[in-house]
Design goal:
The protein is built from 15 helices and 20 strands. The chain is an alpha/beta fold and 425 residues long. The radius of gyration is 22 Å and the shape is globular. The two termini are 29 Å apart.
Length: 425
């Protein structure tokens, strides 16, 4: 059993539903501990149960973060827009699985969910046993990606199955109801546990209520911190800020990634080439073993770089100074065991690089799931959930500086997600 004493009441309830073998839909605001509950559940599984469990996510980085593999790899999903009558070839690992966990489920477009669901139904039919499905995430943070040209094609192909797919979430699909999920809504924000005004206004931002904008303008820091991480709505702006800041550094030491096996661009947790110099701002992209010196998302400043031994000494903002060495990430997939009775996670490639990013700026999208001490937010957002994610990344309101005016049209939300969650309540 997991360590239930560390969980609040709703987290503990969700864990018990998972442990009882029920299909669970775990959702909630930023900072309510969804990932924590999921980790507690996985820790509670015996070795035998782990060998019957598939852990998945829609993207490569999300899959690495949850210790699993991508949906496309596991289910052998074609890299195209999918049709309602798409032929499904059930992967052997799916047939052998007892449970499937999907983290960041809201990024799974409805046509991908169709393929996943039909794979599960077919596997259940063949082995005459149910497969437990656990989905975790928040549709008000991360909607699926649908390009404009894809939107028209999907409308034409799927119009008879789904009259209006809205933002493209998996729950618009009729198959969602077939799983009969137990809906577990986490509501207690633990990231900013004591600042109830911050929590209240953060939740207003989550559902697109613009009345929170004036509060954020008045109650966040009015003075920019030069060491704060810039959260940018676009890759272009983040790249421009990083390039401008790094230009002044001379004698930069290059760290080149060592790549083996089947690695996609989306699998890479940091850059192929990272050039470091004393004084540069960086962010850790892994949890240090033991977690004493730094965690994923910790910001710091490079003290020195050892070109021969290939490490950097970083003074993190928490006051800890330590050596950071290259780290090897394993990119995984699942295979079925020889007796077809269990699944095993197999390494299909590795990516070795110093686990740092240049951290003057990152995109809001890449900040999702992380917590920072101080940020500068560029508020001209253009996508649903984007501004809410930016406003909810910081531990305290005093750590936020907003570079501009929070205009109402910057706060976009997925109306279909709001309606869906309201119906669940």
């Amino acid at each position: 059993m997991g360590n239930c004493t560390r969980l609040n009441e709703k987290q503990n309830q969700a864990l018990k539903f998972m442990q009882a073998g029920m299909n669970v839909h775990l959702y909630g605001e930023a900072g309510t501990g969804k990932s924590f509950v999921l980790k507690e559940f996985i820790k509670s599984l015996s070795c035998d149960e782990i060998q019957k469990t598939i852990i998945a996510a829609p993207t490569g980085i999300a899959a690495i973060n949850v210790g699993g593999a991508t949906l496309h790899r596991i289910f052998h999903i074609p890299i195209t827009l999918l049709t309602p009558n798409q032929s499904v070839k059930v992967a052997p690992a799916v047939k052998a699985a007892k449970r499937i966990i999907i983290d960041e489920y809201s990024m799974m477009r409805f046509d991908v969910f169709d393929y996943v669901a039909r794979s599960i139904f077919t596997a259940e039919e063949k082995k005459k046993k149910k497969i437990q499905l656990i989905v975790v995430g928040d549709a008000l943070q991360l909607p699926p990606v649908i390009r404009n040209d894809d939107n028209e094609v999907l409308k034409r192909v799927w119009s008879k199955t789904i009259s209006n797919f809205g933002s493209g979430f998996p729950f618009v699909h009729p198959f969602w109801e077939k799983f009969q999920f137990v809906n577990c809504h986490l509501t207690e924000v633990v990231r900013q546990r004591t600042d109830f005004e911050y929590i209240q206004n953060e939740n207003l931002a989550r559902v697109g209520n613009t009345s929170c904008l004036q509060w954020f303008m008045q109650n966040t820091n009015h003075k920019i911190d030069v060491d704060a991480l810039h959260l940018c709505p676009t890759n272009q702006l983040a790249l421009a800020i990083n390039n401008e800041k790094c230009e002044k550094f001379k004698n930069k030491i290059p760290f080149c990634a060592v790549i083996n096996g089947k690695i996609n661009e989306s699998d890479k947790p940091t850059d192929d080439l990272i050039e470091l110099a004393s004084g540069m701002r960086v962010m850790a992209v892994i949890n240090e073993q033991g977690g004493f010196n730094y965690q994923n998302g910790s910001l710091g400043t490079v003290v020195s770089v050892d070109a021969q031994s290939k490490y950097a000494i970083v003074k993190f903002d928490n006051g800890q100074t330590c050596k950071v060495y290259p780290y090897k990430w394993e990119i995984c997939n699942y295979e079925v065991s020889e007796d077809n009775m269990s699944v095993k996670k197999v390494v299909i490639g590795t990516f070795e690089q110093i686990p740092l990013k240049i951290a003057y700026a990152i995109t809001i999208h890449k900040s999702q799931g992380q917590t920072y001490d101080k940020v500068t937010i560029h508020p001209n957002c253009f996508a649903a959930g984007q501004l809410y994610v930016a406003l909810s990344r910081c531990k305290t309101r005093s750590g936020i500086y907003i570079d501009g005016i929070l205009k109402p049209h910057f706060l976009m939300t997925a109306i279909d997600a709001v309606q869906f969650y309201n119906e669940l309540e």
